[in-house]
Amino acid sequence: MSDVAGLKKDLTRRMEGALEVLHKEFTGLRTGRASASLLDPVMVEAYGAMTPLNQVGSVSVPESRMLSVQVWDKSMVKAVEKAIRNAGLGLNPAADGTLIRVPIPALNEERRTELGKVAGKYAEQARISVRNVRRDGMDQLKKWEKDSEISEDILRSEEKEIQKLTDKVIGEIDEALAHKEQEIMQV
Fold first, then answer.
1. Coiled-coil annotation: which residues (predicted)?
2. Class of 4-28+108-185 in CATH
3. Beta carbons of 187 and 32 less than 8 angstroms apart
4. CB of 142 within 8 A of CB of 155?
5. Phi/psi at 147 (5° precision)
6. Of 27-31, 56-60, 110-114, 164-168, where does mean pLDDT reach its minimum?
7. Helix or strand or coil: residue 65?
8. Share of the chain above pLDDT 90, in %
9. Separation of alpha carbons 11 and 17, rounded Å
């Protein structure tokens, strides 16, 4: 038996999930300003295992172009400093006791353009995900109509509803991209 309401709920959840992933990817893109989430991907070799940075110290943003990492275990300071330096983020940490200061360098024009392109790629991946979800929903509706579980009228109206949902989520993706590009290009 067809469950049109359940299908729409599932499609909405999956499309919103694609938008959520996009927002997570955008937080990893470095703009000229400091953000505690910038160090989220950093892994530290601690006690014989690779450990996320947030499990060996706390990250804070004391200034707009500075991050600070308060390392809880004094013996881990060198490992944390090395992990940040080797994370490929272009950051150069400086240790001061158990506090590590990480200045955020200003971005040059070339790097800004490059980051804008990366943001565009992330947004396009999100749009593709949303369109794939839409296609799955449309295929399911057509299957139900073919099996005479729903009428052709219901098929047409539900296809319009799914398209409206798709347009709404893609609009949100475009809006998030425009905001991120503005943030990246801001000097």
1. 141-175
2. mainly alpha
3. yes
4. yes
5. -85, 10
6. 27-31
7. coil
8. 41
9. 10
